[in-house]
Amino acid sequence: MAAKKSLFSGGWTTEQDQNLRIKSPAKINLFLHVTAKRSDGYHDLLSLMCCISLYDNITLSPSSCQGIEICCMHASVPENHTNLAYRAAALFFRELGCDPAFPESGEKNGLRIKIEKNIPVAAGLGGGSSNAAAVLSALNSVYDHPFSMATLSNMGLSLGADVPFFLFGKPAIAAGIGEKLTDYAKLRHFTLMLVCPEFSVSTAAVYKKLNLRLTKCEKKLKKFLFGEPVFDVRQHLCNDLELVTTVLHPEILQIKQKLMDLNANGALMSGSGPAVFGVFTESDKARFAYDVLAENDNWRVFIAETLF
Ligand code: ATP
Known about the structure:
With 308 residues, the chain is an alpha+beta fold. The chain has 2 domains: 20-183, Ribosomal Protein S5, domain 2; 191-305, Alpha-Beta Plaits (2-Layer Sandwich). It is 31% helix and 28% strand. It binds adenosine-5'-triphosphate. Adenosine-5'-triphosphate (ATP) binds next to helix 1 and helix 2.
């Protein structure tokens, strides 16, 4: 099969064996301000989101099984119809009105999705949503763009609030439940040091415990939102969910402090956590912090760059 246009950030390639390889990046929230609880149970938010160079690798290939098959060697990721990559592919084919299959693949008429997980799961880095967006975007390219970006984004939103952002693929300010995206071209490049403790966090549980009267981001973001919208690490890094998750897991505060002691310009929990990122304007300082924090056996550590 011939490779068509590259859509998804990180791009994708095909090989003669008809495997289609896609890179599925993680995200961080440089700020996450929860503005209101809605009557449907969701929360409205304002968030500056950015993809980073920590990727899951996804391979789509023809399969001799009927339908969609998921292969993921990770204890916390389901290999059935609840996997977000599976749900994305199933939705794509349902909307297209055809059976799940890899095009032009002869008698092998199923679709196999292999996910090599590098992004920590349930860590606030959006791995599942990214996988869903990667599959939607790749299938849309392979099938010659049957769906517009707006339609694809609506399909993505039905899978998860962060999926439209990953389809958007550039730094953006997300509003609504995450689906109203505005390009944020002013973001400068940062090197990030990510620290992920062993435990995972349920996003739904964190939102359930959130008390909007106690949140702090509104004040911190006043200048950004109502004055000059230039993101400044020292002033604007904030996350309204941090208070909830750190009460449950004080270790997050300890990680933030360690990153600051190692000369980060700022440190913050991403999404509902527990992943914490330190922002460095000088990559050698990030490298030094990596070497120090990698010594801790209870934490997974990564160096990554902001993606544009
Ligand atoms: P969210 O805030 O959307 O919950 P997150 O980044 O904190 O995102 P994910 O890594 O997306 O967390 O995982 C959330 C849940 O989704 C996990 O319980 C996981 O088992 C499930 N899940 C389903 N499909 C996937 C997938 N393809 N990759 C990762 N997790 C998946």
